[in-house]
Amino acid sequence: MAGFEDRMGRRDAVAVMLATLAGGAIAATWPGAARAAGIGGAFVDLLGRASDSSLDKLAEPGAFYNDPDIRIGLPLVGGLGGGLGGVFGKVLDTGSKLGLTDNLVRRLNDAAGVAAGEAKPIFRSAISRLSLADVPGIATQNDGATQYLRRSAGDELRGKLRPLVDDGLAQVGAYGQLDSLTRRSNVLAKAGITHDKLGDSVTGQALDGIFRYIGNEETKLRANPLKPAGSLLKGILGGN
Fold it and tell me: In 3-state terms, what secondary structure has residue 55?
């Protein structure tokens, strides 16, 4: 009887440890609680690694501009969205040959890189506070944890990324260039491209690119059993 109680004590201790790794108590019975907690903790670690790696890559000079999948462009006419810049943004970028934009678009991408280099703490903070309530859904998709992070903390991250983007736009001279271009031509003013509109558009597009990279990194980590996070996930999801 004592042996049985000792074994149960050890199992309960493991359950508590895993729940702590997951970031809080889980209202379920053993072994379901411990299993969910272990998976939750593994995904928190996975997301942290994926976000750090992604932001390091995007902070490299030219990273945003050189990747056509995430390249940042000027806002659409009337501020109808950012996306990857839109038709009007591409026209203005091409118009640099005529002296209209003077490579303003490249400066926007440089600013996004500056912001990415400063964004690790805000992403780590958001990740550390995830409840990871939808563990089954997260576990079944290669970028499930990234999608969960975006659903759960996307608005918060956008709000905290915006000041970093504004600082980056000022640092690389994009806001100054916008002011200069606006004085020389009314094209940008007619398009409604102001400091606020530009900052908001670059923030949205930068966040799209960051989440795209985090999702790709998550997929790689899951697939690589030699990585600590990948190994932990395989052990938990593959166990009985």
Answer: helix
**Rounded distance, CA 170 to CA 100, Å?**
19
Enumerate residues 6+ apart whose C-beta is below 8 A from 145. Answer: 43, 46, 47, 50, 138, 218
* % pLDDT > 70, the chain: 63
Q: What type of residue sits at position 183?
A: R
Using DSSP's 3-state secondary structure scheme, residue 165 falls into helix
DSSP summary character for residue 79: G
**Residues 141-172 pLDDT 10s:** 889 889 999 999 999 999 999 999 999 999 99
DSSP state letters, 196-224 = HHHHHHHHHHHHHHHHHHHHHHHHHHHH-
Q: What does the alpha-carbon distance between residue 229 and residue 240 come to, in Å, rounded to a whole number?
A: 19
Helix-then-strand count for the chain, H and E: 12, 0
CA angle 222, 227, 61 (to 5 degrees): 85
Residue 167 CA to residue 111 CA, distance in Å, equals 8
DSSP 76: P
pLDDT digits (tens, 9 = 90+) for 39-96: 567 778 889 999 999 999 999 999 999 999 999 988 854 333 444 344 455 545 444 4
For residues 15 and 7, is the Cβ–Cβ distance under 8 A?
no
